[in-house]
Amino acid sequence: MGLPAEKLATLNYAVLLYSELTRCFVTWDRIPKGWNVTHSIIATRMLDLGRAEGDLRTQRRAILELLGIKFPGEASAEVVQLIEQQESLDLLHGWFRALARSSDYAEFLAHLRR
Prior knowledge:
Blueprint: H1 5-19, H2 25-29, H3 41-70, H4 77-85, H5 89-101, H6 105-112
């Protein structure tokens, strides 16, 4: 997923323009004119972090929605908070599967406590 040549040229121009302010012009100006910088390591990492956070939000929302469908009104504020603050996508996936298989709320709570 690269940028069109027009946008890359515009981006390169902007980088050169602002590189002077950060005293990096000499470095950026050394990039061969035919070389297209198609990605940034920092931007890629930021996008990856954003995707990971989005995946976490999506999984948390799915668990809370399924919890409300299967066991309406039974989830305590502590359980909701535990789900909303969980940072492990693998653990959230496990909780979702356990919730889907649970026949009652107590069974799901037992899985959360493991």
